[in-house]
Amino acid sequence: MQVDVYGDTLCALVSATALASTGNQVQLHLPAGPHAEQLQRGECPFREAGLADLMAEQLQGGRLMLAPLAAPPQPSAVIWLALNPDSMPEALSLIAALPERCTRRWLVVNQSTFAVGSSELLQQTLLDCDTPPVNPGAVVSLPDLLIEGNALQSFMRADSWLLGADADWARQLVTELLRPFNRRRDAIMPMRPREAEFTKLAITGMLATRLSYMNDMANLADSLDVDIEQVRQGMGADRRIGDAYLYPGCGFGGLSFSRDVMSLASTLEGSGLAAQLLDEVLNINERQKEVLFRKLWRHYGTDLRGRKVALWGVAFKPETSRINNAPALKLLEALWAQGVEVHVHDPRALDTLARWAGERDDLVLHQDPYAAVAGADALMLVTEWKAYWSPDLPRLRELMAAPLLLDGRNVWDPAFMKQNGFTYYGIGRR
């Protein structure tokens, strides 16, 4: 099939690449900007496992082509929207400009995370002609459920697809497009477009609620002399709960994740319902981003001026270079406000952090994690990159001015660290 994908998001690049890899002829329409410039130079803007190689292979094979943000050509079978959440006006303009929209049956797949009801609005725009359409087109909702850090695999081996479609022919055509990625079992869940859009937001809201709940429990465990790890395992063993997203830590980040929770809260408020739970979820998360700072502040008797602190990890999650709403950003601001010099290591996010922070005398970036801890009064682990899980403890202790570890992801064993001569603080750990 001829598929025209619109957007420069991670979702757009993954969808275009995956669809091209199964034999479709895909045009990726890119808005002007840094991502388009990188792609034109042969660079992939996102560091995702397997994405750059597969994209290069599809471009070289001619199944994937880059194009400007313009109306699709006549042979196009599917218009696939994977735009930024604030690009609804552009989506409406694109649909309104579809050539021969009144006589041709267009299929539009909306994978963008717009507000609930956006697919219906796009559908109305598609049908808004001077004369009644002979073959009315259809807009379906296929919400973006990609997992950053494993985005390509989460498309090609998806646990589920939420397919919101009112027209049977449109549902069948999207099912055929997804068939190569849907062979192990039928993972497509048909529903109405509005239901698919709301389900996407509801999933994110539930995951955020579990995370904030566990962070609240971890903070309570600190005051009760309880090890939250034992509590987590006990809760996860209950089949009614399960163990997913029960790991306490120093807060969650990510542009899409945070924005989806806020969008759900806004939707509730717009309907006249109070978003008390989600508001509290977000408040807990913002407080949790400073939990490591508070532990450090108490440890040094509220006097941090002139101290040197090392941070391992600033990306909002492992396997990405993105720092959108990352806990490390709020932590950095709190440390700087107290006159702390911060030394940072991250496998991928240093360039992104440098652009965010600008030139500062109290921020030093390191390519070597052990160089970052040299002479440090504390080491804070903020992002749980696998490279940080088993550090060289004798070397770490020798390099640091004070053997103080603050584990924001509970990846280290408290007893083992203490046996090796470190003072250890985790999130609800003993």
From TrEMBL:
Residues reported to bind substrate: 200, 245-249, 253, 317
SUPFAM superfamilies, per the entry: 6-phosphogluconate dehydrogenase C-terminal domain-like, NAD(P)-binding Rossmann-fold domains, UDP-glucose/GDP-mannose dehydrogenase C-terminal domain
Binding site for NAD(+): 113, 148
Organism of origin: Halopseudomonas aestusnigri
Keyword NAD: yes
Residue ranges of domain UDP-glucose/GDP-mannose dehydrogenase C-terminal in the record: 310-414
Keywords linked to the UniProt accession: NAD, Oxidoreductase
GO biological process, one term: polysaccharide biosynthetic process
Keyword presence, Cell inner membrane: no
Name by which UniProt lists this protein: UDP-glucose 6-dehydrogenase
Pathway noted in the entry: Nucleotide-sugar biosynthesis; UDP-alpha-D-glucuronate biosynthesis; UDP-alpha-D-glucuronate from UDP-alpha-D-glucose: step 1/1
Homology family: Belongs to the UDP-glucose/GDP-mannose dehydrogenase family.
NCBIfam families: NDP-sugDHase
Enzyme Commission number, as recorded: 1.1.1.22
MF term (GO), any: UDP-glucose 6-dehydrogenase activity
InterPro entries: 6-PGluconate_DH-like_C_sf, NAD(P)-bd_dom_sf, UDP-Glc/GDP-Man, UDP-Glc/GDP-Man_DH_C, UDP-Glc/GDP-Man_DH_C_sf, UDP-Glc/GDP-Man_DH_dimer, UDP-Glc/GDP-Man_DH_N, UDPglc_DH_bac
